């Protein structure tokens, strides 16, 4: 549960109100691989989270949907207690029992965007009776109200008549000779001419004449506490869900072992020049594709974020920063495990500094790739489409690198300028080429000739410039990492606007 907007001290009455959730204490929500609480319990939990933030106005869309009669009665009773303590509770409910219906204070009936009734619940039955549609004896009033305004009942009647079924329910006798459309407009016109409508208009007029009052929060949470809370919660989710990072760590290890055996002790012979470059391209080019496996989990987290942002519990910047911090231990684990396995099995350039650079470069590459995946997840909400888009972005970043062709040989338009400069895979591979080849000497093509220096191979065979240090490549990766996080922030900030523009464009 997110505590970003919880008050520091909660009143005893508030604590007593939520004792009904004690049965779910220490219970896990569950996910795709572990069973948790039921759908009804999840609904009650979501309502409880909203109640704990103590909002001045609580808007609930079908809070009793999927609940049994006892659970529905408990939920509405709790909401009634909150309403009687000075807060406004608005619920939209399609079907409810008479016991739950009697807990409400006011009732609004809508049909096709028109107001059928708006007033106290206790006066609704009398209003329908005065309009010529009395509620039959021993019938649930909400069911009678729906029967009068819902066009679905007309479809049922027409189907029954087409099947020559004449035993219409006795409670329908007063309406059987009148369509729902006629009943609905009779009720709408009756309401417009009733005292209930006049009372509503008078209340609206009084509200308009009042001076605007700014409702301030009774409590506020510091930015640091929000960041710590979100980071802790996100880290717990990543730890508990084996599919978020643990499976990916396992896959990275398996792929690293396979690549290690494929390029085992590649050596420094003249035949090892091409395999070394291909190994570097494989590591940074294809292993980053495994980041796409986190897309479903990114989308699930964004759904939670959307709901909590709508409640103004925290901002986009806090969420972006907390998601990055919480993922750091897992990305470091991936980099160290995969980097250690590959470095020793392939037998890259010896030296602890070269090993450290290899792991740091791999860490930056994976972090930048995850940043690009988050940007895609923020812009594309459909899971399948998001995975396809993320794969397309990865391929687009792979093409202007040295994996397929030397950067100096690719077309200048678009591919070299600007794609080769914004491709994080190109910078990762270039840095690793320098880290591996600079300082090494390879056997000559003709025995007895001078050994071939790694710097010569970089310039003449791989087309890599050695005018600047390999750490400049890492610096560019860090800059790209920050840039993608900023893009992620902007995508979250303007997500609704971008989605509406996209939908409008596609519809046209």
Automatic annotation (TrEMBL):
It is a multi-pass membrane protein. The chain crosses the membrane at residues 245-267, 279-299, 319-343, 355-378, 384-401, 471-492. The keyword Membrane applies. One of its GO terms (molecular function) is ABC-type transporter activity. The keyword Metal-binding does not apply. It is found in: Membrane. Residues 94-150 form the ABC transporter family G domain. Its main location: membrane. It holds the Pfam family ABC2_membrane. One of its GO terms (cellular component) is membrane. InterPro entries: ABC2_TM, ABC_transporter-like_ATP-bd, ABCG_dom, P-loop_NTPase, Plant_ABCG. Residues 27-65 form the ABC transporter domain. Keywords: Membrane, Transmembrane, Transmembrane helix, Transport. Residues 226-435 form the ABC-2 type transporter transmembrane domain. Belongs to the ABC transporter superfamily. ABCG family. Eye pigment precursor importer (TC 3.A.1.204) subfamily. This is ABC transporter domain-containing protein.
């Amino acid at each position: 549960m997110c505590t970003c907007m919880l008050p520091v001290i909660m009143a005893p009455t508030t604590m007593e109100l939520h004792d009904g959730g004690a049965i779910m204490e220490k219970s896990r929500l569950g996910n795709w691989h572990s069973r948790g609480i039921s759908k009804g319990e999840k609904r009650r939990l979501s309502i409880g989270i909203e109640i704990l933030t103590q909002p001045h106005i609580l808007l609930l869309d079908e809070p009793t949907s999927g609940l049994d009669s006892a659970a529905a009665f408990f939920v509405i009773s709790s909401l009634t207690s909150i309403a009687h303590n000075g807060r406004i509770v608005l619920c939209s409910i399609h079907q409810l029992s008479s016991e739950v219906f009697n807990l409400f204070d006011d009732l609004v009936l809508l049909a096709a965007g028109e107001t059928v009734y708006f007033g106290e619940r206790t006066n609704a039955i009398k209003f329908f009776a005065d309009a010529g549609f009395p509620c039959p004896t021993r019938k649930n009033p909400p069911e009678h109200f729906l029967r009068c305004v819902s066009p679905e009942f007309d479809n049922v009647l027409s189907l029954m008549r087409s099947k020559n079924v004449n035993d219409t329910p006795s409670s329908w006798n007063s309406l059987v000779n009148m369509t729902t459309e006629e009943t609905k407009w009779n009720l709408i016109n009756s309401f417009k001419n009733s005292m209930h409508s006049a009372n509503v208009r008078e209340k609206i007029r009084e509200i308009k004449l009042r001076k605007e009052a700014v409702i301030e929060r009774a409590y506020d949470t510091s930015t640091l506490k929000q960041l710590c809370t979100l980071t802790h919660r996100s880290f717990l989710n990543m730890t508990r869900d084996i599919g978020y990072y643990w499976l990916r760590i396992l896959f990275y290890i398996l792929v690293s072992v396979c690549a290690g055996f494929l390029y085992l002790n590649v050596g420094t012979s003249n035949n090892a020049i091409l395999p070394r470059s291909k190994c570097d391209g494989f590591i940074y080019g294809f292993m980053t594709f495994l980041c796409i496996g986190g897309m479903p989990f990114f989308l699930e987290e964004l759904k939670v974020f959307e709901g909590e942002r709508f409640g103004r519990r925290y901002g986009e910047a806090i969420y972006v920063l907390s998601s990055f911090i919480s993922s750091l231990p897992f990305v470091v684990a991936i980099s160290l495990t995969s980097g250690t396995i590959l470095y020793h099995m392939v037998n890259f350039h010896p030296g602890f500094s070269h090993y450290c650079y290899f792991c740091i470069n791999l860490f930056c590459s994976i972090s930048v790739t995850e940043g690009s995946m988050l940007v895609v997840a923020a812009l594309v909400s459909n899971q399948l489409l998001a995975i396809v888009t993320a794969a397309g972005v990865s391929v687009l970043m792979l093409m202007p690198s040295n994996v397929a062709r030397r950067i100096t040989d690719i077309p200048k338009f678009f591919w070299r300028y600007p794609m080769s400069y914004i491709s994080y895979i190109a910078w990762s591979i270039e840095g690793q080429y320098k880290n591996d080849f600079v300082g090494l000497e390879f056997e000559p093509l003709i025995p007895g000739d001078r050994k071939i220096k790694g710097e010569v191979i970089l310039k003449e065979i791989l087309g890599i410039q050695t005018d600047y240090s390999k750490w400049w490549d890492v610096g560019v990766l860090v800059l790209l990492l920050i840039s993608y996080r900023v893009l992620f922030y902007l995508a979250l900030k303007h997500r609704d606007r971008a989605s509406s523009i996209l939908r409008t464009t596609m519809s046209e």
